[in-house]
Amino acid sequence: MRCLKSTAVLPLLTLLVLPLAVQAQVYKWRDAAGNIHYGDQPPAGTPAQPRKLDPANAASADAAAAQKAAADQRLDAAKRASEAKEKAADTERERAQEAQRAKACERSRTNLEGLESGQIRFRMGANGEREALDGAVRDAELNEARRIVDANCSPRPAAAAKSGK
């Protein structure tokens, strides 16, 4: 019976002593160029500082690094999602601007066609009365209408389209 107890205690005792034996001895030294090196044996004739590595700390450091990496991945994923959302909003904004631009182009062309058709056109004067467009005033209105059609209906430069201007 006594032998049975000692055989049961021996593995437990081994498990308790094993972490102490696992601690590694590491040395730190500087070479002739001043670079710092680490190793399990220092070069002969070089002064080295012994360092102890604790496996428990290494495991906790690995867990902390894993947690940091996971947090960084979540942060990157959130950043990518935010960027994708912003890009979708920018695309939608550009579509709305293009739709407004197409409507303005159509209105400008209709106005220009009316002026070029020779129909009598009127505008409201400063005193609120209708004034017929004729002569130099009509020519000025035609030039302005052509300029507006050019501005609203010409293709947008690629740089201005990208920057939203």
Short account of what is shown:
This protein is an alpha+beta fold.
Shape: rod-shaped
Mean pLDDT score, rounded? 80
Low-confidence stretches: none
**Measured distance between first and last alpha carbons:** 93 Å
Count the helices. How many? Answer: 4
Strand content: 5-15%
Number of strands: 5
Query: What's the gyration radius in Å?
Result: 41 Å
SSE run = HEEEHEEHH
- Report the sheet with the most strands, covering strand number, pairing sense and barrel closure: 3 strands, antiparallel
Secondary structure: helix percent: 55-70%
Strand order of the largest sheet: 2-1-3
Structural class: alpha+beta
Structure characterization notes:
This protein has 165 residues and is α+β, with helices and mostly antiparallel strands. Helices cover 65% and strands 13% of the residues. It contains 4 helices and 5 strands. The protein has helices at 2-22, 55-116, 136-153, 158-163, and strands at residues 24-30, 36-39, 49-53, 122-124, 130-132. The strands form 2 sheets. Strands 2-1-3 form a 3-stranded antiparallel sheet. Strand 4 and strand 5 (130-132) form a beta hairpin. Helix 2 (55-116) runs antiparallel to helix 3 (136-153). The longest helix has 62 residues, at 55-116. It starts with a helix and ends with a helix. The mean pLDDT is 80.
